[in-house]
From TrEMBL:
SMART domains: S4. Residues 20-76 form the RNA-binding S4 domain. GO terms for molecular function: RNA binding; rRNA pseudouridine synthase activity. It holds the Pfam family S4. NCBIfam families: pseudouridine synthase. This is rRNA pseudouridine synthase. The keyword Isomerase applies. PROSITE patterns: S4 (PS50889). InterPro entries: PsdUridine_s_RsuA/RluB/E/F_cat, PsdUridine_synth_cat_dom_sf, PsdUridine_synth_RsuA/RluA, PsdUridine_synth_RsuA/RluB/E/F, RsuA_PseudoU_synthase, S4_RNA-bd, S4_RNA-bd_sf, TruA/RsuA/RluB/E/F_N.
Length: 254
């Protein structure tokens, strides 16, 4: 399967006509060295309107386009990671492996924050960004951003379980917002939630009698996990994916 075109940039053209190595320009904009070489080989990079052929060539930075969009040094970061099990959703931890450490060095230098938390045993989509207001809105219950999970559970939920989740489940001190349950197969479900409370998915499914055995986040705010990413692999969000996050957060993108 062909990987979706990646476009990570700050929306402003590079200025000054400085000549730089093409691969260094692309990596400074957040691509890994391998991703930069693949983008050039695939014809996704143009210099002055002409497809680039040599990732090591010195070029006018102001004339470089990736997937038809200007390439600039990093402004805001929008990044997708396929989080593996066994790592913490943290920027730093002195004792255990973190999801942050799996990001490319050029991205880590900008210290992006994870958008929400996935438990150590939970896998799947984890978005990182340096855009503070977007981050706040994506995780705030106020904006009801959809998060979609795939869960392997004990037993198989029925229509009554789905209706109970739609109506909201009463817990001590609060009642959950409506959640949408789809049964995908025996012991396999998709659950869409909009709150993001602590252990929300696990608590909801346990409450209807189907404890979670394994859990993975499939999508958030209209952005789906890239199926071509292996566990621990990451890539920049495409322009369309970034736009989807801003729409989900009801925030204008400058």
């Amino acid at each position: 399967m062909r990987r979706p075109a990646a476009a990570w940039y700050n929306g402003k053209n590079a200025r000054g006509g400085t000549r730089v190595r093409l691969d260094k320009l692309l990596t400074s904009a957040g691509l890994t060295r391998a991703q930069a070489k693949r983008a050039v080989a695939a014809g996704r990079v143009t210099v002055g309107g002409v497809p680039a052929r040599d990732a090591g060539a010195h070029v006018d930075g102001a004339s470089v386009l990736l997937d038809g969009r200007p390439v600039s040094p990093p402004g805001e970061i929008y990044w997708m990671l396929n989080k593996p099990a066994g790592v913490l959703t943290a920027v730093r931890d002195g004792r255990e492996a973190t999801a942050f450490a799996l990001l490319p060095e050029a991205v880590r230098r900008q210290i992006p924050s994870p958008v929400g938390r996935l438990d150590k045993d939970v896998t799947g989509l984890l978005i990182f960004t340096t855009h503070g207001e977007l981050l706040h809105r994506l995780i705030s219950p106020k904006y009801a951003v959809k998060k979609v999970y795939i869960a392997r559970v004990e037993g198989t939920p029925d229509e009554a379980d789905a209706q109970r989740l739609t109506a909201g489940v009463a817990f001590a001190g609060f009642t959950s917002r409506p959640a949408r349950l789809e049964v995908l197969g025996e012991g396999l479900v998709r659950l869409t939630v909009t709150e993001g409370r602590y252990h929300e998915v696990k608590r909801l499914l346990a409450a209807v009698g189907h404890p979670v055995l394994a859990l993975s986040r499939e999508a958030m705010g209209g952005v789906r996990l890239d199926e071509t990413l292996g566990a621990g692999e990451s890539r920049p969000l495409t322009g369309a994916e970034i736009d989807a996050l801003f729409r989900a957060a009801r925030l204008e993108r400058n």
